[in-house]
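One example given next:
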Amino acid sequence: MDKTELLRSQLLVLAESFRQRLETDIPALSDLARSLPATTEAPIEPLRLLRDSLHKLAGSAGTFGYPTLGNKARELEQTARQCLDQRSWDDACRQRLIDGIDELKTMQKAGHSAQGPNPQMAQASVQPSSALRIFILDDDPQSALRVAQTLESFGYVVVTFATAAKLTPALEHDRPDALVLDVSPGTAGHGLLESIQRLQATWNQPLPLIAVSDQESFDIQLSAVRAGAQGFFIKPLDLAALENRLERCFNSFQSEPFRVLVVDDDIDLAQRFEAVLSSADMRVETVSDPRLLLQHMDVFMPDVILMDVNMPDYSGPELAQMIRMNDNWLRVPIVYLSAETDVARQMAALLKAGDDFITKPISDSVLITTVYSRAQRARLVSQALARDSLTGLLKHADIKEQVELEIERARRTKLPVSIAMIDIDHFKQVNDSHGHGVGDNVIRALANLLRQRLRKGDRLGRYGGEEFVAVLPNCNAEDAKTILDDIRAAFNALYFSGSNGAFQCSFSAGVSACQALGWEASGLLERADASLYQAKAQGRNRIVLADSGSDIP
């Protein structure tokens, strides 16, 4: 059974469950309405219960294919709310509710002619091959050569073009994974922007375009954006920043699925949301008991939270404020779900802690699009805030958090994880001899080399100054040592341009692994750091294992 048929089957089961629920819920609403007193003071608690039940029905009925019934439930909810807010209650109000719920009973018995589930899937991400191909068009052959050599050192396959006449047919018949285009006024690339914009419209997945220019004008940037540019750089190029942006483009295809936490007391509706979002390749967890919300967040680490506004004993804004009290969750967007149509009430909910508001009933396509866009934006912002500005690697606090997370994952899976502390040898001499600008180039070069050579699932951060931390899940100490030695040899072979001519650098590293040292993240970092000092003491330019003290000279 393919993904669409599986989802269709799941939604049909959920729709039948909802139909059966109506057979119980609507008679219960009728009984509750008829039990209300006719002429005495407004019955606060029973009326509040009726209002909340009608609100829940209004939010779910349309989603399950009963739009008319849902609209009538919303109308009755407003009637009950007015009676509560204004404390106005009489037999006429009671009768309006009874008559309206009788209409709901008639609608429920008549059934509906709902169409079968026809979810609109989010487009599947294109998984690039291991050898990513980059096309470059630059009127300056020396500039094109420098970019090509840099990108090739990071494992990309680069094809350069001198003219638009050669690039255009290549794009049409042999599409690359990304395009680097010089769009400076008067260049061939500038004249190609409109053609590329038309080509982008014919492709299911847009081609990542990196625009380069010798001018930073608004019009040039706008033309580049319209052609699909995901990066814009001014000459002379910062090649490390260019490679970072390309990696970000490709990571949007390769990153792990977005994680969505659905908080809703309506279990049937929550299950439907889960089925629809899961069909779009998102990981979904549902929470029907709000008291378990924070516990779920700590374990699941969601990218987005879908939060029902009205739940028994708790409100969505109250729960959102509890989430916002934890600094770790400030970056996670909270999207409210509700049948509430009053704009003032929606704004009040958003002002307290939310980020967006979706009114029930919700179409499958709107749900997928809204959640996907919010999750994508949140992850990009989170990554940007967690990254060191010079290297693009995780910052000190964030890489330490990744160490803890990977240790916890290793504990659950019983698979090894290795931690490496890496430090550039004699770095102070580099700064003293060649200046801090050249020193920054050395730091950036090692960061890029580590990022290129380590696996996508490995974690890498700048721990401070010229020191780095690498976290290698499912990798024992000996394998980590071998990998780092290959990177050490490659770093030794790089030449840097300094005030006194070309020079080379080396690094030392200490490695510790969880399988021999227990499961405490702080202990692993300390042992790796101690091994790094051993490597320095033994002459530098080597890797030392915490377990054995052995090294690779």
